[in-house]
Design a protein that fits this description.
Blueprint lengths: L5 H6 L1 H14 L1 H15 L4 H7 L5 H4 L4 H6 L10 H20 L8 H29 L9 H29 L4 H22 L7 H10 L4 H9 L1 H10 L1 H14 L1 H17 L3 H30 L1 H25 L3 H28 L6 H18 L4 H7 L4 H10 L2 H16 L7
Helix pairs in contact: 2-8, 2-9, 2-10, 3-8, 3-9, 3-15, 4-20, 7-8, 7-10, 8-19, 9-10, 9-16, 9-18, 13-14, 14-19, 14-22, 15-17, 15-19, 15-21, 16-17, 16-18, 17-18, 17-21, 17-22
Length: 441
């Protein structure tokens, strides 16, 4: 890789920390995503119920509402750890406790408590993501270190999939190979979460944000209570509109909302689909988790390289089209049945296109984010993307039931969902180029 050999990237301490924090961001999706879906499916819940249970992910779509608090204030109890790191450690401890409590109950007898604990994890995880994204954005200067931004996105993506796929695979291996109960699996997952917390404490450096610049802007608005409230809650969003204009912001939010909608619908029901089509827990762990993990790590770095070479527009366009087309492979599986070779092909293709699209998207959003209000503005943009990926996709199970279990048609529909976002993207890029916010590459 011209100018940025892999050996140099691996020696960069900030990228290693970004990878580790990516693991912390991806792991909660095992607890309330894939492992929880497997547990609820084995417990006999309907596809509609499983899809609706996943609506707890809506908190990822609204975390920008409390992101200004994370951006502005430190946690007194963990103050010595740093601004972002203190929040991350505190929230990981909350997730550990909630996961441990989950291991003591069952869906059949305590569905209400299971839902409340899952919501607790979702809230803690969504808030933790604010601090993690802020840490990553703060770590690099877009003016002097722009070439590193795609690689930071790649390391974050690889870390996320390591937390989601590797630890998710461990959950399914424990369940499938040892015939362990799901409650016991969750007790081990709580231990994993505690171990991750300790690793963050030991290996993630104490972060020092650009507080001087932040406080300087706050002082410019005055020292009154209302002035400080306005600065904390309103100024980050006002600054975004002031910088780009309302038209570009609306187009940007519309694109982010629709870009990964199809992938979200597929992902929400994938475990249920694999089980219904006839794949075992061990096969799901091997192909959907382990293979996807390796593919994502490799192609995230390749995606970062091509993102730098292709430019933002072409990268997003190619990533979107490839991501949509890959969903047709799952329609093929639905028609052909549980063939391992076809399953392997689908997860490799899906891992590649998902990694590529994610790296390009994260790089795009990072470049558009103001460093003074990094956590809040990134949370707003990521929340809109997450709204389609988490909340709207809660109806995915209902769609499958409406189609009477016609999985092939369902996956074709997920392919078509990406087309509106690409039209919006074309219009958005033209506006950004006209205002000279990005070049014409």
């Amino acid at each position: 890789m011209t100018g940025l050999p892999l050996r140099s990237l691996l020696r960069e301490p900030r990228l290693r920390m970004i990878f580790l924090l990516g693991i912390c961001s991806g792991f909660p999706w095992v607890l309330i995503g894939s492992a929880m879906t497997g547990w609820l499916t084995d417990a006999g819940l309907s596809r509609t119920s499983i899809g609706l249970f996943g609506s707890i992910f809506f908190v990822y779509a609204i975390n920008f509402l409390w992101a200004p608090v994370i951006d502005r204030f430190r946690l007194p109890l963990f103050r010595h750890l740093g601004d972002r790191k203190s929040w991350i450690v505190f929230l990981l401890l909350i997730m550990t406790a909630a996961c441990a409590a989950m291991s003591l109950i069952s869906p059949q007898a305590d569905m209400l408590w299971l839902s409340l604990l899952a919501m607790t994890i979702a809230l803690a995880s969504a808030t933790c993501d604010i601090a993690i994204d802020g840490f990553r954005v703060d770590s690099l200067d877009p003016e002097t270190e722009a070439p590193l931004i795609p690689y930071a996105a790649a390391f974050a993506t690889s870390g996320w999939w390591t937390g989601y796929s590797l630890l998710g695979a461990a959950a399914f291996y424990m369940k499938g190979l040892s015939d362990m109960s799901w409650a016991s699996v969750f007790s081990y997952l709580a231990l994993f979460c505690l171990m991750m917390t300790a690793i963050v404490v030991l290996f993630v450096e104490r972060d020092s944000r650009r507080l001087a610049q932040l406080e300087q802007k706050a002082a410019a608005l005055g020292q009154g209570v209302w002035a400080q409230i306005r600065f904390t809650l309103i100024e980050p969003f006002r600054a975004l509109v002031q910088r780009y204009g309302s038209t570009i912001v609306i187009l940007l939010l519309s694109f982010l909302f629709t870009f990964k909608m199809g992938e979200a619908f597929l992902g929400r029901m994938s475990i249920t689909f694999y089980k219904e089509i006839g794949f075992s827990d061990a096969q799901i762990a091997t192909y959907s988790k382990m293979v996807t993990w390796w593919v994502t790590i490799v192609f995230s770095l390749i995606g970062a390289y091509f993102n730098h070479r292709l430019g933002i527009f072409r990268g997003l366009l190619i990533g979107g089209l490839a991501m949509a087309a890959t969903n047709l492979l799952f329609a093929w599986i639905a028609l052909a049945g549980p063939k391992e070779s076809l399953y392997l092909l689908a997860v490799i293709a899906d891992g590649f296109t998902s990694a590529f699209a994610t790296v390009v998207l994260v790089s795009f959003v990072t470049l558009l984010t103001d460093r003074v209000f990094s956590a809040t503005q990134y949370a707003l943009l990521a929340s809109i993307a997450n709204f389609g990926r988490t909340t709207v996709s809660g109806g995915s199970g209902y769609v499958v039931d409406l189609l009477n279990g016609d999985w092939a048609t369902f996956f074709v529909l997920t392919t078509l969902m990406v087309l509106p976002s690409l039209l919006i993207l074309w219009w958005l890029i033209r506006r950004l180029q006209a205002r000279q916010f990005i070049d014409h590459s």
